[in-house]
Amino acid sequence: MNDKIKHNGIVEDVGQGIVKVRILQTSACAHCKVASHCNAAEAKEKIIDVRCEEDAARYNVGQAVTVATTTSAVGRAMTVGFVVPFIVMVASLLLVLTLTGDEVLAALTAVLALIPYYLTVFLLRRPLSKGVAFTIEDSNENY
């Protein structure tokens, strides 16, 4: 079973221990034959920061590479980005609704509860990013 998710990309910048790689992130239906006639098909360019402490200098701007990460890292990122905030919202909604009976207040509190959550995620972004590490695999393909 393939435990990696890979994207082809182009090296945009090489810094001290960090390589910035531009990838084209596509939706699942972007390769469909009728995708040009459908609004659901989309593709976005993303810049991925890849930590390469020892060998960043071996990459050159414009070089074709493959960026990879593990499916477990993606699972952790999805949990932090979507599952936990959903639980925070539902718990806040149910708690305030049970205590006050006011649906508007409960809904507002549920949405506002995400502010401290995402602020905490932002402040802890460095330790959290260590769990979602990207690697670069050399690619001889034309991007």
Strand content: 25-35%
**Large-scale geometry:** elongated
Oligomer: single chain
Please give the share of residues in helix: 25-40%
Rg to the nearest angstrom?
20 Å
The number of helical segments is 4
H/E element order: EEEEHHHHE
Number of strands: 5
Outline the structure in words.
With 143 residues, the protein is an alpha+beta fold. It has helices at 71-100, 103-112, 114-123, 125-130; strands spanning 4-14, 18-26, 43-51, 64-70, 135-138. Helix 1 runs antiparallel to helix 2 (103-112) and helix 1 runs antiparallel to helix 3 (114-123). The mean pLDDT is 78.
Layout of helices and strands:
Elements (H helix, E strand, L loop, with lengths): L3 E11 L3 E9 L16 E9 L12 E7 H30 L2 H10 L1 H10 L1 H6 L4 E4 L5
Antiparallel strand pairs: 1-2, 1-4, 2-3, 4-5
Helix pairs in contact: 1-2, 1-3
What are the salient characteristics of this protein?
single chain, 143 residues, five-stranded antiparallel sheet, 4 helices
Short recap of the structure:
This protein is an alpha+beta fold and 143 residues long. It has helices at 71-100, 103-112, 114-123, 125-130; strands at residues 4-14, 18-26, 43-51, 64-70, 135-138.
